[in-house]
Amino acid sequence: MAFSFYLCNVKFSGSKRNLDSVGMTASILCAIHCAIVPIMLTSLPIIGLGFLANPFLEWSMIFLALLIGVYAIGNSYFKQHHKILPLLLLITGFIIIITGHFWATNLHEAIIVPIGGLIIATAHFFNIKYAATCTNPNHAPH
After folding, report:
1. What SS3 class is residue 137?
2. How far, in Å, are 25, 65, 98 from residue 72 at the CA level?
3. Mean of the per-residue pLDDT values for the chain?
4. C-alpha dihedral (19, 21, 27, 33), degrees to nearest 10
């Protein structure tokens, strides 16, 4: 069920805003996960968190972030704001993540992959900003 709220006479679509919020959260969690797991790889099983180093979990998180990002940002691009920046950031973030997973060593992967996740979170942030539609004609454009 969609809902709307107003902030400074700016109307946001609740369901699309929530999807971007989920995308930002997932991307930030992915960045944290990808930064910490390579560093703590040997101690994770000892504290009962060995499943976090599972490649299936990592690729599932990446795939989930991709689905959410493509749906939320793609939908907003084609139906609302038509601004390319969120799409470019989304694509750049995933290229960095994939590059980090396939070609970086453990230490470099722990630096490169989280950067990609943060770029994806930034894409969702800009998507929320651009998808806002101003309802007050006297209000400055966003």
Report:
1. coil
2. 13, 10, 20
3. 77
4. -120
Is residue 105 packed enough to be buried (19+ CB in 10 Å), middle (13-18) or exposed (0-12)? Answer: exposed
63 token code pair: 């795939």
Q: pLDDT (tens digit, 9 = 90+) per residue, 58-84?
A: 888 889 889 999 999 999 999 888 999
**Alpha-carbon gap, residue 31 to 94, rounded angstroms:** 12
pTM of the model: 0.71
Q: What is the pairing mode between strands 133-134 and 10-13?
A: antiparallel
Helix segments in 1-142, DSSP class H: 14-40, 55-76, 85-103, 106-131
